């Protein structure tokens, strides 16, 4: 479901559902620039009476990038398993080497996973 679909399903405004997602109250996944929802998870949320579920909330770093902390591990968007400090280091290296951050991240993931 899209954000608008989820808002219609819950009978709230798009702004309200977006705020619930950002607060970690309603489970969702960001696909590209769009939020996606599973109807089954929205039903589970309603069955709990709107109590907070155990989903991590998404925060914004100094550069405007998104990150979350889950089980003590920091993840940057696309939910890569490295911290904001490591992200900043990759950006710095990309600039120094005249390459893309994507290329450096791909190398990092190949070496560590």
UniProtKB/TrEMBL annotation:
<dbReference type="InterPro" id="IPR009061">
    <property type="entry name" value="DNA-bd_dom_put_sf"/>
</dbReference>
<protein>
    <submittedName>
        <fullName>Helix-turn-helix domain-containing protein</fullName>
    </submittedName>
</protein>
<dbReference type="InterPro" id="IPR010093">
    <property type="entry name" value="SinI_DNA-bd"/>
</dbReference>
<feature type="domain" description="Helix-turn-helix">
    <location>
        <begin position="1"/>
        <end position="49"/>
    </location>
</feature>
<dbReference type="Pfam" id="PF12728">
    <property type="entry name" value="HTH_17"/>
</dbReference>
<dbReference type="InterPro" id="IPR041657">
    <property type="entry name" value="HTH_17"/>
</dbReference>
């Amino acid at each position: 479901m899209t954000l608008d679909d989820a808002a219609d399903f819950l009978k709230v405004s798009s702004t309200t559902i977006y705020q619930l997602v950002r607060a970690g109250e309603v489970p969702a996944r960001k696909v590209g620039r769009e939020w996606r929802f599973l109807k089954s998870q929205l039903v589970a949320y309603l069955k709990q009476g709107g109590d907070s579920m155990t989903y991590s909330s998404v925060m914004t770093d100094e550069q405007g990038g998104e990150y979350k902390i889950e089980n003590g591990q920091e993840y940057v968007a696309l939910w890569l398993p490295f911290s904001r400090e490591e992200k900043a280091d990759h950006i710095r290296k990309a600039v120094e080497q005249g390459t893309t951050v994507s290329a450096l991240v791909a190398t990092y993931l190949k070496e560590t996973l």
